[in-house]
């Protein structure tokens, strides 16, 4: 997937990884970057930066958990640009909840981390299939391959995000549709840094597992992974090693993670 001359949509594009992706795609020569966020001012700020740097961008306000809003976003983009080459379902949330917490945190996590990606695929796939090409990039997390101590809804829904990407790749990969899933570990965004500053054990365990990298470093790895047409994009390569260790000996892996959590 070459983003040069591509029309790219990035949800959660007003900050963090989404903003870094939007800026990097513009630098790579995207024909237009559609910066989507529930905070229009944040999205507009990123779009303005891209425009000032000589790129082409537009800001869009959308709630990605509203299927009608996602449909409208796609329809407006198709009407304006004629097609969508890359749709990045990047919006996501953490909760800090466990199984004992109220259902609201669980429902919200499923809405943002899984169903929003379902709505995006449902909205954009018909036009991609008609053109015979297109790419979906779903942001999950290392938690989607491993787990997330201290945040049960996040761990469960990020596993769902990975599973959805796998299903999409199997179902549509033979029809011209590429699929990638992004699974970073520790990234210096508020999703990690705020809980880390509060001393939450789960965030401390993530920080102890490897380097905390910048959102810009994630964007670099994404561009390379898309160019290589990789399904699994790992900004932290050790996540692949951890994943293999988990698969080969789950009991040992779980015991090691319990020790890591206890040490924090």
Model description:
It is a single chain. The mean pLDDT is 95. Helix 2 links the parallel strand 2 (32-37) and strand 3 (57-61). The chain has helices at 16-27, 40-52, 67-81, 103-131, 152-172, 190-197, 201-209, 215-227, 238-248, 250-263; strands spanning 7-11, 32-37, 57-61, 86-89, 134-139, 177-182, 232-233. The chain is α/β, with parallel strands linked by helices. Helix 6 packs across helix 7. A 7-stranded parallel sheet has the order 3-2-1-4-5-6-7, sandwiched between helices. It has 10 helices and 7 strands. It is 55% helix and 13% strand.
Question: Helices and strands in order, then pairings?
Answer:
Layout: E1 7-11, H1 16-27, E2 32-37, H2 40-52, E3 57-61, H3 67-81, E4 86-89, H4 103-131, E5 134-139, H5 152-172, E6 177-182, H6 190-197, H7 201-209, H8 215-227, E7 232-233, H9 238-248, H10 250-263
Parallel strand pairs: 1-2, 1-4, 2-3, 4-5, 5-6, 6-7
Helix pairs in contact: 1-2, 1-8, 3-4, 4-5, 6-7, 9-10
